[in-house]
Design goal:
The protein is of the alpha+beta class. It is 15% helix and 46% strand. Strands 1-2-3-4-5-6-7-8-9-10 form a ten-stranded antiparallel barrel. A hairpin with a 4-residue loop joins β2 (64-73) and β3.
């Protein structure tokens, strides 16, 4: 009986190592190759890069209202915003360039249930201007909403939002914040 077991082991052992080698070669042949990063080669995907970094956000009176961190991710195809208010509220947005529409898109969601979807682009005179709507979870209806990001002479960024309750006939300020780079912001060195 031991001779039969030894004989089977002698036959199976080389086959097992052959199977492993064949499996490794097959895995190498079928492994997906890394896809190129097409967004990195299109200048439109860099139009919003002035907003990258970690920022202290203040109102026009200088009162600090929060911190915002904007990173470029997914091979340069999306800017991810992570907002934390001074009172602990949070929100996140995904910002990307839609090449078919030739527009920037922002989709925002916060812990308070605000949902914002706005689109637009970089204006000839400098600011990024996006328009769309805002809605609140648990409340009926959407309201017209728009935002503007402007790089100021002192390298701060002004973010200005306004909404309309009457389909754009009149507008009221929703938020105006001034972004100053934090001293520990690694984007300062880029």
């Amino acid at each position: 009986m031991h001779r039969i077991t030894a004989l089977i082991a002698a036959i199976v052992a080389p086959l097992a190592s052959t199977t492993i080698v064949v499996a490794e070669v097959a895995a190498q042949d079928t492994a997906p190759t890394e896809r190129p990063h097409p967004c990195r080669g299109m200048p439109e995907f860099s139009q919003f890069d002035f907003w990258l970094g970690t920022w202290d956000v203040r109102l026009s009176d200088g009162k600090r209202v929060g911190t915002n961190r904007i990173t470029k991710e997914q091979g340069g195809c999306v800017l991810v915003e992570n907002w934390t208010s001074g009172r602990g509220g949070t929100g996140i947005s995904l910002n990307y360039y839609d090449p078919d529409a030739q527009q920037w898109v922002q989709n925002w969601v916060d812990a308070g249930g605000s949902l914002i979807t706005i689109r637009g682009g970089l204006q000839d005179d400098g600011p990024m201007w996006l328009e769309g709507f805002i809605q609140s979870v648990g409340q009926a209806g959407k309201h017209a909403f728009r935002g503007r990001w402007t790089v100021l002479d002192d390298q701060r960024v002004e973010q200005f939002f306004e909404e309309s309750q009457d389909d754009g006939a009149t507008w009221s300020e929703w938020f105006r914040g001034f972004y100053s780079r934090r001293p520990d912001d690694e984007a300062n060195t880029q």
